[in-house]
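step 3/5: co-fold with S-adenosyl-L-homocysteine
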Amino acid sequence: MTKLSLIKTSTLPEQKYGNHDTQKINLLGMSKQELADFFVSLGEKSFRATQLMKWIYQFGVTDFFEMTNISKKLQEKLDEVAHITPPAVKFKQFSEDGTRKWVFEVAGGSLVETVLIPAEDGKQFGRKTLCISSQVGCALDCSFCSTGKQGFERDLNASEIIGQLWVANQSYMEDVAPTARENRVTNVVMMGMGEPLLNYQPVVKSMSLMLDDHAFGLSKRRVTLSTSGIVPKMYELAKDIDVSLAISLHAPNDELRNELVPINKKYPLAELIKAAKSYVHDENPRHKKHVTIEYVMLAGVNDSDEHAHQLARLLEGLPSKINLIPFNPFPHAPYARSSNNRIHTFSNILNNAGYVCTTRQTRGDDIDAACGQLVGQVADRTRRAKQWKESVQKRQATT
Ligand code: SAH
Ligand code: SF4
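step 4/5: write tokens
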């Protein structure tokens, strides 16, 4: 993995967005129906909703007075009662390999991070995957995850979730006339901070805007929700929206998974695999061809040949693609990344058992942007963060 130098860094507070009059309604993140209701409440026709969505999401316009197919009178009315405001960018870093990272300051002062990872070929209009956060922190405390060590602070609302995608696209629109603008982000993964299925409504609403042709118009195969396995919500998701599903498995048996992904004690593997099978086989027309199985490679913990064979047996009958994720270390993490040789052997066992198994390339190392390592340091705001810090200090004192 090559280290890359930064070409553009801003660590100064940047309040480009986020200043707004809280008495007004934020239209960013509203569903099509909510927007239609809003226009009707103003005595307008509901079709205005799709007009406005195009301005907001396709042309990146937030100023009602730039919306040329809206009458002056309506522009003034909108300006009086509403605003379109994404979360405030606290700072951003753009890496030489095309990786971009934003830290947002959301209402209440909490920080969340978003990372854009371009395809290896670096083509201007090539694949660009945005890794979006759904919560500030996370309540689930997986043992290898720095977000988990922060504890849970709060859910993000729909404007804060979809706002991350809006700002990422906006970063390619500078100096382009509104009607000549194009969204550049091609793929979204809900793999930033937080467990998306524990913030269900805002996440589903935001993903609907990602898919909607009047908003971002992304294909359903290009929007992926990653979950640690909130089983009842997986069944709900299958009914509510048509997106790809990734499951953070990380262990092939309950004993080990209880340790690495503690939510497994509530929803053990048998239930999780059953829910995954139902998501794929579901008789409703939204069924998917496969789920993605995420498996973090922790040296000496979950990466033996036996673990690979167990995993192959566990996934029998579940159409799946396996994605091995080399562990991203964070300060005082009690794990190390498996060696490349080990990952290769593990992967071969799965390939030989008939699975498509890929290894995730870690990108944006120079800006701490690797997915799953969105927090450079454990934030010191919650009891869990305090306990984590104390346990690390104790460990250091005894070694
Ligand atoms: N909460 C959801 C989505 C966010 S985490 C989930 O757990 O699926 C996104 C992915 O990054 C998950 O697969 C998670 O297990 C993985 N991850 C977390 N910490 C990591 C680390 N230190 N190294 C590698 N992957 C990590
Ligand atoms: Fe939460 Fe996902 Fe991290 Fe687990 S891996 S603590 S579910 S963000």
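step 5/5: annotate
Residues 62 and 89 are 16 Å apart (CA to CA).
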